[in-house]
Amino acid sequence: MRLNDVLEHIQRVLHHARRLESSAESAVQLHFSANAHQTNQTMRKLTSIAAIFAPLTLITGISG
To answer: Percentage of the chain with pLDDT > 90?
Structure first.
């Protein structure tokens, strides 16, 4: 009887640990996704700035 109670308790603890592991993994994936999104936004801004100033730099270089 006691052994069954102990086994049941261990199974519940293992199940809870698996859920916590899954939640932690989801949080890490969400963090990486948010960082990637922010990096993409920054790269989009830098590309726009480069697209504006690159032709101006070329014209200035040719004109001397």
So the answer is: 91
Distance between CA 16 and CA 20 in Å, rounded? 6
Helix (H, G, I), strand (E, B) or coil at 64: coil
* Whether the model pTM is above 0.70: no
Residue type, 64: G
Q: How far apart are CA 35 and CA 27, in angstroms?
A: 12
How far is the C-alpha of 35 from the C-alpha of 25, rounded, in Å?
Answer: 16
Rounded Cα distance, 61 and 49, in Å:
18
Mean pLDDT of 33-43: 98
DSSP class of 1: -
